[in-house]
Amino acid sequence: MTIKIAPSILSADIMNLERDVRAADKAGADVFHIDLMDGNFVPNMSFSPSVVEGMRRVTDKPLDIHMMMQNPDAYIKPIVDAGASTILIHAESTQHIYRSIELVKSYGVRAGVVVNPGTPLETVKELFPIIDRILVMTVNPGFGGQKFIPGMTKKIQRLDQLRQTAADDNFDIEVDGGVNPETIRQCAKAGADIFVAGSYLFDGNDADLKGRIDNLRSLAAVEQ
After folding, report:
1. N or C: fewer beta carbons within 10 Å in the chain?
2. Residue 96, annotated as binding a ligand
3. Facing residues of 35 across strands?
4. Binding residues for a divalent metal cation, per the UniProt record (predicted)?
């Protein structure tokens, strides 16, 4: 699998979002990760489909939409229309996650499932043949800047083993939460392919953004 670095715009400067997105694009971001929160599924609120639409106007890079929302089916079409490349839905957010994944794919958009730290992989195993991506939360969802949960590396490793033992399971493994030079090594060694990074990328000097993206990529490559 190809290593991809996905800056999370939740940690960007909201008052200068276009500036930060353009800077990260130029610095070598592979994907942009956009958190949509409704204040119900998680105790926080963030971006809407209009932000996705705005970002599509300033970057050609894939837009990875992480839906932290109840009743996700109601928002899938607006997010698709806004320019989403991949839509990721929490297994915990709906009783009908299989139907939600199929709805996303019916629009010709890549679909993925998200699992919280306390959610067993067994609850989403039936989705493996139809999904393009699994996002493993390495923090509790809802807020940026949290510390990585060390026990999640074993979960990533188990997921990679399951992926390798099934001929029809061909999904990416993405990780989100507390990704930095130390933790990306652990996640890459465990089998992750896509790494969402927020605070590490955006909390430093803008002039060194390319260096931080390159650093994460090289550290992950060493472990794969």
Report:
1. C
2. no
3. 66
4. 33, 35, 66, 176
Q: How many domains does the chain have?
A: 1
Domain membership of residue 127 as a residue range: 4-223
Q: Tell me the CATH number at 126.
A: 3.20.20.70
Are 184 and 219 in contact by the 8 Å Cβ rule? The answer is yes
N- to C-terminal Cα separation, the chain: 9
- Please tell me the distance from the alpha carbon of residue 5 to that of residue 25, in angstroms, as a whole number: 11
Q: Is residue 33 a known part of a binding site?
A: yes
Per-residue CA distances from 162 to 156, 169, 192, 196 (Å) = 10, 8, 13, 22
pLDDT tens-place string over residues 12-39: 999 999 999 999 999 999 999 999 988 8
Give the tens place of pLDDT for each residue, 142-179.
Answer: 666 678 999 999 999 999 999 988 767 789 999 999 99
- The confidence band for 218, taking pLDDT boundaries of 50, 70 and 90, is very high
Q: Is 177 annotated as a binding residue?
A: yes
* Beta partners for residue 197, in sequence order: 7
| Catalytic center residues | 35, 176
- What per-residue confidence (pLDDT) applies to 142? 63
Angstrom distance (rounded) from CA 81 to CA 212: 32
Those residues whose C-beta lies under 8 Å from the C-beta of residue 130, and which sit 6 or more positions away, are 98, 101, 102, 105, 111
pTM over 0.90: yes
